[in-house]
Design brief:
The complex is a heterodimer of chains A (about 280) and B (about 300). Helices cover about 75% and strands about 5% of the residues of chain A. With about 280 residues, chain A is mainly alpha-helical. In chain A, a hairpin with a 2-residue loop joins strand 1 and strand 2. Chain B has a single domain, classed as YVTN repeat-like/Quinoprotein amine dehydrogenase (Methylamine Dehydrogenase, Chain H). Chain B contains 2 helices and 25 strands. The chains are: A mainly alpha (about 280), B mainly beta (about 300). At the A-B interface, strand 1, strand 2 and helix 9 of A face helix 1, strand 1, strand 2 and strand 22 of B.
């Protein structure tokens, strides 16, 4: 009886403390923003430019793909990397579904006076006193936010899909090649995710949740594929060695998409969805 | 392996059901001097309201989802004044005259309809007179009605005995006269939410494009009160206030399931009421009150 009463209280208290810690950590990281135009412009450049942001991860992936010193080592690396790609797709699907269902606006949005719908009532949310970056693009977004322009993507920041996707890929590279993996993980943590938190697009908790999804799904899928689909994996990696020219072309496209956060594939899927709506369902 | 799979599925299920994953909504006050409160929800008995009108202490609703005209007050609750039995399909917008008679449009059934102060409902003029898909309605100073037709792209004048004549023809270029209102000087504001333009027809029958910002501004419903024009934008989920000669100022932005902001009205104290079509198919909606913070009222 006592346990039944105390357990929820402990959970609520723990969540409260975790949120408090999360807010404090975000404000600490974000405190470097909005002080120097040059610094903010550099951060914004790495956030916006796909080559600078994710090109390094794509490069590490390609290096790991071709970098095996022997055919057996190359084969082993490719098995890990192919499985990683499958896992990364699952991770991005999971994080997207979660962020669309769990309602948590980005910290920058939470800096405004917001009322949230809770049990048929509008409840004022706690305002996050985040600092805004001074570069031109961030200032433009800030003005849009103050004017009420909020993208629906900005209403679901938990978990971070950037964290999930890039940690899954980087971790896969780390499993294939330690040196390249450290580089990819370091770049993901400092440049990609650090920038996201400095600019108040994500909290540390968003990033941690994205990372948790990535680690969990990558582990499960690596385990499943190696045990249940071993034959298929052997066959595919064998084909990449036999048809090296074709597989190089495909892996270039994959690395290209990784480097651009799969924006082109998402656009293609969007086109398919629009075609389905307009042609098959006869809407619009 | 089986146990692991079950554990992962179980954890995912627990996670999804314990984090409040239902679709949520929010209101961002871009003018922080205002506050937002939930005035009424579907639970009080209405469906998914479109047109709203504050009149003598009550809110009158053109309930598109609930296919009815209703009156609501917190003390008396909801009262149905006309419903599908009359032949209406999608009540759109409404006005009330000084004798408390209600007049409303219907974009599916077409026509102009009336519910008298005594509670008798009838169609004043129907599709046979050219009112195919009626949208905005305004009560003209001479007692007749201006009714916008979204399919004919015409604004008609309709008299109380059902005579229909063309007020603004196709040559004026208004595609969908979604909402209309007169200001205190006799100018007529017309909201076209297909071309995304706010027009003003002055006393000399000259039509002016007041706001034309492309997709970033799509006027859904307009309401004139105390020298200001209040505008809802269902495409962008926004509530604006506009004063002649100035740019529209955003008061609030609506997101999530509250994005579809439709009707608007203002009471005598300046409290703004907006209707939200949370889910038209499932007949769900909300009415949100936007009002000044107490400190702002005290300062004024």
């Amino acid at each position: 009886m006592t346990v039944a009463v105390l357990f929820p209280l402990i959970i609520v208290s723990f969540i409260g403390r975790l949120n408090e810690l999360n807010d404090q950590l975000l404000l600490l990281i974000n405190s470097v923003a909005g002080r120097s135009w040059l610094f903010d412009s550099v951060i914004a450049f790495f956030l916006a430019n796909d080559l600078a942001k994710a090109g390094v991860i794509g490069g590490c992936f390609l290096a790991a793909w071709y970098g095996g010193k022997t055919a057996a080592l190359t084969n082993a690396r490719r098995k890990i990397l192919l499985t990683t790609l499958v896992a990364a797709l699952c991770v991005i699907t999971t994080t997207k579904i979660l962020s669309k269902t769990i309602f948590l606006p980005r910290p920058e949005v939470q800096s405004q006076k917001i009322y949230k719908l809770a049990s048929d009532q509008l409840v004022e949310m706690k305002r996050m006193p985040v600092r805004f970056m001074l570069d031109d693009e961030s200032q433009k977004s800030y003005r849009a936010l103050v004017g009420g322009d909020v993208d629906s993507n900005d209403l679901g920041s938990f978990p971070s899909d950037h964290a999930g996707f890039f940690i899954a890929i980087s971790l896969g590279i780390w499993l294939a090649s330690r040196r390249l993996g450290w580089l990819a993980l370091g770049w993901t943590a400092i440049v990609i995710l650090g920038g996201k938190m400095i600019s108040a697009q994500h909290t540390p908790l968003d990033v941690a949740a994205g990372a948790a999804v990535a680690i969990t799904e990558l582990s499960v899928i690596q385990f499943l594929v190696r045990n249940r689909f071993k034959g298929l994996l052997e066959k595919v990696t064998g084909l990449t060695l036999r048809y090296s020219a074709f597989s190089s072309a495909v892996i270039f496209l994959v690395a290209f998409e990784v480097s651009s956060t799969m924006i082109h594939i998402r656009a293609f899927l969007g086109l398919l969805a629009a075609m389905r709506r307009h042609v098959l369902l006869g809407m619009g | 392996m089986k146990k692991l799979t079950i554990a992962v599925i179980g954890f995912s299920f627990f996670f999804l059901t314990s984090c409040g994953v239902k679709k949520e909504g929010l209101v961002i006050m871009t003018d922080p001097s205002y506050k937002a409160t939930m005035f009424a929800t579907t639970k009080v008995g209405f469906g998914s309201p479109d047109g709203l009108l504050w009149h003598k202490g009550k809110l009158y609703l053109a309930d598109e989802g609930g296919v009815a005209i209703e009156a609501y007050s917190r003390t008396e609750g909801i009262k149905k004044l006309a419903d599908a039995g009359l032949g209406v399909l999608s009540p759109e917008d409404l006005v009330i005259d000084s004798q408390d008679n209600i007049f409303f449009t219907d974009d599916d059934a077409g026509g102009l309809w009336e519910v008298t102060a005594a509670g008798q409902a009838r169609q004043i003029a129907g599709k046979d007179k050219g009112l195919i898909s009626t949208e905005g309605i305004a009560l003209a100073p001479d007692g007749s009605f201006l009714v916008g037709d979204g399919k004919q792209h015409i604004i008609y004048r309709v008299t109380r005995d059902g005579q229909v004549s063309e007020f603004l023809g196709r040559d004026f270029g208004i595609t969908k006269p979604e909402s209309m209102v007169f200001d205190d000087r006799g100018n007529l504001y017309i909201a076209d939410n297909q071309d995304n333009v706010l027009y003003l027809l002055d006393g000399d029958r000259k039509l002016h494009k007041i706001i034309d910002h492309g997709d970033s501004f799509s006027p859904e419903t307009i309401y004139f009160a105390k020298g200001s024009l209040y505008i809802t934008d269902s495409h962008n989920g926004k509530l604006y206030v506009y004063a002649p000669g100035e740019e529209p100022k955003t008061i609030a932005a609506f997101g999530g399931q509250l994005k579809d902001v439709e009707g608007i009205t203002v009471d005598e104290q300046g409290h703004i009421f907006v209707s939200i079509q949370t889910n038209l198919k499932q007949k769900q909606g909300d009415i949100i009150e936007i009002s000044r913070e107490e400190s702002q009222i005290a300062r004024k």
